[in-house]
Design a protein that fits this description.
The protein is α/β, with parallel strands linked by helices. It has a single domain (4-133, 166-240), classed as Alpha-Beta Complex (Spore Coat Polysaccharide Biosynthesis Protein SpsA, Chain A). The protein has five helices and 13 strands.
Length: 244
């Protein structure tokens, strides 16, 4: 079990403009509730008791919203504010009182992944960090040409589909990774990965075939909106509930 989760909710949401000009991306609605409300309910159902919101862009609006609705959640909500952008992992350095194990989640994802199962995998792997990963197929709408050093054509693939393993924006960390994060500096996840690999720290992966959608782009937001509103119980259902 894990007590603490950190939700990264401070990004500017540039890919989702104009929606995010006046609304923080985690407050963009899926049906009658914002995406971050769904995440909070899923976290509570998986045994998390304390959620730290890492805030930056439109932070006063985020805090005002949660000051009004915090009583309806089964988790304690705490705030951490960025005076300057700290990247995707830098905000962790500012958060006090984290437990030995912590979930870190982007505030703009819709998923059916079980956070409790991810944490179990992390503990069994015995690594300093575990990244949830997912298979994605990307279709290329052009003929792809491979060219040799002499400028001659080597191969031609007509509109190929490429398979990738991508990060889901969901991670489990041991608290000691904070020692690798600089103070008050922008520090992104790839920076941390390079440091951990250089130090010989193994990073586990948890491959999930669960539903997952990053709502950072308008077309992905439309898909997530449709999928959630057509079947909310799929995302807040019995498989996400654990016994305390």
């Amino acid at each position: 079990m894990v007590t603490d989760a950190v939700i990264l909710a401070g990004g500017t949401g540039t890919r989702l403009r104009p929606f995010t000009v006046s609304i923080p991306k985690p407050l963009v609605p899926l049906g009658e509730e914002p995406i971050i409300e769904i995440l909070l309910r899923q976290l509570a159902a998986n045994g998390v008791t304390r959620v730290h919101l890492a805030l930056g862009h439109l932070a006063p609006l985020m805090k005002a919203y949660f000051d009004q609705v915090s009583q309806r959640h089964d988790v304690e909500i705490l705030y951490s504010f960025e005076d300057q952008p700290l990247g995707t992992i830098g905000p962790l350095r500012k958060i006090q009182g984290l437990g030995d194990t912590c979930l870190l989640i982007n505030g703009d994802i819709l998923t059916t992944l079980s956070f409790s199962e991810l944490v179990k995998w992390h503990h069994a792997a015995g690594c300093v960090a575990t990244f949830a990963v997912h298979g994605r197929t990307v279709s290329v709408d052009y003929g792809v040409i491979e060219v040799g050093a002499d400028g001659h054509l080597l191969s031609h693939k007509e509109k190929p589909s490429l398979e990738f393993t991508v990060g889901m924006g969901i991670y489990v960390f041991n608290r000691r990774i904070i020692d690798f994060i600089p103070v008050d500096q922008k520090f992104d996840l790839p920076d941390l990965v390079r440091v951990l690999i250089a130090r010989g720290e193994p990073i586990a992966t948890y491959r999930s075939e669960d539903y997952w959608m990053d709502i950072g782009r308008p077309e992905d937001y439309e898909i997530a909106y449709r999928d959630y509103t057509s079947d909310p119980a799929r995302f807040i259902g019995s498989r996400h509930t654990v016994r305390r």
